[in-house]
Design brief:
single chain, 5-stranded antiparallel β-sheet, 8 helices
């Protein structure tokens, strides 16, 4: 059989087993640090207008892009990161998903992609104004290599770049979120329903990439409906989101113990050399789609089904994916070891492949302006 993106698939069963609990493991998770301030503060907010990105006053005390709009008439959103200060990987896919979310909500609205692309470009350049990455001249390969695990920099650097790949840049990559509100905002200096937020990109630490991370289980929580990226979910997941309860992330599971996704990422398992990830009941992540394509290109077999909680002791390895974090190895679930409690080779292989893809394919936002 063939799955999404032409990936070979197979069905497989699960065997129950026991796992060792490591309550003292460093991989069990640590609170994530608050992002350091960027060149112009911690967070910025813009309205997307026909005149470009119109600066707005962010709420007092907001530390990142997910703490800005709680009191607004929330609709749908997308979250992504920059590479080399002002380049994006998969921006068109994010825009496609935003349009799909609005359609599934029954809205007649569709993104003005040219308007959004222009605002993204302006905001990201302003974010790095005064640095040598202000107009996107920082090497994409250099940026990706910095983000990678030890030993990957040479491979990524040789994959090609845009601009001065070998140069040292002070450009700060950004975490970016764009929203389409259900109604015009209140208390802000704009009538635009399309808003754009930027804060510093928080790169996974070298320890997290080397040793892996621990995740918890968000019992009783469900993203509904799962295929729509609704902004209210950012509020609903609090308490079991990234960094909460000392875990890097939290799993969402169905009533039968099937692992659907994480509260802000997709989840992958590796068993018997095959990649296992949910086919339904989860948000179809943009990074997930890239990973499935990269796995197919590498000849890795994919099982499109939900890995089960009682299958965890039998897994060889596990990882999560998101646009801001690439592939992060998961080594414990609620303190129980996965894959012997160590990151595995398939995770490392796919992380490198994704880094190389970003080095080759990341493009300025304005590359989407004519869409």
């Amino acid at each position: 059989m063939s799955g999404q993106d032409g990936t070979p698939t197979r069905r497989g069963g699960a065997r129950a087993g026991k796992a060792k609990r490591d309550v003292k493991s460093k991989a069990a998770g640590k609170p994530r640090p608050v992002a350091a301030a960027g060149p112009h503060g911690t967070v910025r907010l813009y309205a997307v207008t026909p005149d470009g990105a119109h600066p707005l006053e962010p709420p007092a005390g907001a530390r990142d892009v997910h703490e800005l709009l709680d009191d607004q008439p929330l609709g749908i959103y997308e979250g992504l990161r920059t590479f080399g200060a002002s380049y994006f990987l998969g921006l068109e896919r994010h825009m496609d998903r935003a349009d799909r979310s609005m359609a599934l909500l029954g809205w007649k609205d569709r993104l003005d992609r040219a308007l959004l692309s222009r605002a993204l470009d302006e905001a990201c350049r302003a974010w790095n104004a005064g640095t040598d990455g202000s107009v996107g001249t920082a090497g994409i390969a250099g940026t990706v290599a910095t983000a990678g695990a030890a030993g990957t920099a040479g491979a990524v650097g040789s994959a090609g770049s845009v601009g001065t790949a070998g140069a040292t840049s002070t450009a700060v990559d950004a975490r970016v979120r764009f929203d389409v509100l259900a109604q015009p905002p209140h208390g802000l200096d704009t009538d635009s329903r399309m808003l754009l937020a930027i804060s510093p990109h928080d790169e996974p630490s070298a320890e997290e990439l080397r040793d892996g991370v621990g995740v918890g289980i968000a019992l009783g929580k469900h993203r509904l409906p799962p295929r729509i990226k609704q902004a209210r979910w950012v509020i609903e997941r609090r308490g079991t989101g990234p960094g909460d309860r000392g875990y890097f992330e939290h799993l969402l599971v169905d009533d039968d113990g099937g692992i659907l996704e994480c509260t802000s990422a997709n989840f992958f398992a590796v068993r018997g050399g095959a990649l296992v990830t949910a086919a339904t009941g989860m948000l179809e992540g943009v990074t997930r789609s890239f990973i499935l394509e990269l796995a197919a290109a590498a000849g890795i077999l994919v099982e499109l089904r939900s890995p089960r909680l009682d299958e965890l002791p039998e897994l060889d390895e596990a990882f999560l994916t998101s646009a801001s974090r690439n592939c992060i190895p998961v080594v414990t679930v609620e303190g129980l070891h996965v894959g012997g409690g160590r990151p595995g080779p398939v995770t490392a292989q796919l992380r490198r492949a994704y880094q190389e893809l970003a080095a080759r394919e990341a493009r300025p936002a304005l590359a989407n302006a004519s869409s």
